Amino acid sequence: MAHTDRLQELIAEKLKPYVKRIDTEAFYASDFLKSLGQNGFLDSSEGISYSREVMLVEEIAKVCMTTAFNFWCHLAAMTYIRQSTNLHLKEHLLPQFENGSILGATGLSNPMKYYAGLEKLHLRAKKVDGGYIISGKLPSVSNLGDDHWFGIVAEVDDARRIMAIVPCRTEGLSLKEKAEYLGVNGSATFACSFEEVWIPDNWIVAEDADVFIPIIRPAFVLYQTPLGFGVTRGSIDSILQVCNKQMGCNSYLPIQSEELEEQLVTLKNSVYDIAKAGPSVGYWKELLKLRLEVAYLAAKATHGTMLHQGGAGYLMSSGPSRRLRESYFLLNLTPTVKHLEKLLHSN
Question: Which of 27, 37, 132, 275 is exposed most, by the fewest CB atoms within 10 A?
Answer without folding.
Answer: 27
